[in-house]
């Protein structure tokens, strides 16, 4: 099993990331039980589990096939003008946002995005839309049968992480990470240093392709205080 040394400014040397492969996770399954089985013999108390938010959301049934969404003309028009890597570049994903917050708010946010470019301020669309955008992962085309699924944010990620901790004895986080060196802890069990876990996952050891490794075990093999446990818990 491959392990990766984590070398990141702001973190001490000695953190190792171990991606753990699992079978496909389907809606309605007991993901905590799947995690417990997958990390048996790999993770131990003192480690930190990082679970992909997509796997948690799918197990919770928080996903919809893109074919079930009928984009409006507004969704098609705006999506064609978004960056290729943006969730809103997919008209089906953007239509879900429109359905949630209303077309006028989306149009206003789009207009402010354009205006912001003239004054050197980027990202205003995302600032205005807030959770309506961050709670949706567009389809990625990587892992059948979910290659055309639009995945929503997992429900109660703190509670899920705590349930995994109680089942395994190993600290747990639910994480949104990608290949753009962005990582966000959406939920965590008690005592996890969320900021340092995010730093440790910026290289995205989960992978964004067909690796089928929704679990990463973070191990501390250095000396001194554990950088991933204790301290900044929120």
Outline of the structure:
By secondary structure, the protein is α+β, with helices and mostly antiparallel strands.
In words, what does this structure look like?
The protein is of the alpha+beta class. The protein has 2 domains: 4-62 and 153-220, 2-Layer Sandwich (60s Ribosomal Protein L30, Chain: A), CATH 3.30.1330.100; 64-150, no CATH class. It is 34% helix and 19% strand. The strands form 2 sheets. The chain has a 6-stranded mixed sheet, sandwiched between helices. The chain has a 3-stranded antiparallel sheet with strand order 4-6-5, with helices on both faces. A hairpin with a 3-residue loop joins strand 7 and strand 8 (182-188). The chain is globular and about 55 Å long.
């Amino acid at each position: 099993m491959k392990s990766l040394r984590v070398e990141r400014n702001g973190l001490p040397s000695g953190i190792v990331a171990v991606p753990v492969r699992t079978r496909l996770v389907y809606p309605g399954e007991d993901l905590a039980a799947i995690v417990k089985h997958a990390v048996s013999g790999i993770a131990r108390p003192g480690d930190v589990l990082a679970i992909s938010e997509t796997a948690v959301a799918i197990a919770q049934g928080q996903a919809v096939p893109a074919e079930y969404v009928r984009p409006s003309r507004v969704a098609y028009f705006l999506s064609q003008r978004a960056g290729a890597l943006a969730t809103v570049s997919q008209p089906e994903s953007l239509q879900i946002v429109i359905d949630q917050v209303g077309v006028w708010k989306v149009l206003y946010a789009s207009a402010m995005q354009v205006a912001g470019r003239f004054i050197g301020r980027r990202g205003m669309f995302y600032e205005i839309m807030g959770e309506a955008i961050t709670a949706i992962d567009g389809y990625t085309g990587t892992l059948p049968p979910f290659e055309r699924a639009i995945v929503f944010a997992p429900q109660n990620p703190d509670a899920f992480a705590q349930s995994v901790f109680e089942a395994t004895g190993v600290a747990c986080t639910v994480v949104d990470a990608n290949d753009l060196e962005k990582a966000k802890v959406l939920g965590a069990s008690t005592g996890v240093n969320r900021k340092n876990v995010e730093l440790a996952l910026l290289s995205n050891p989960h992978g964004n392709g067909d690796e089928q490794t929704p679990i990463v075990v973070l191990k501390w093999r250095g000396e001194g205080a554990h950088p991933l446990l204790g301290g900044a818990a929120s």
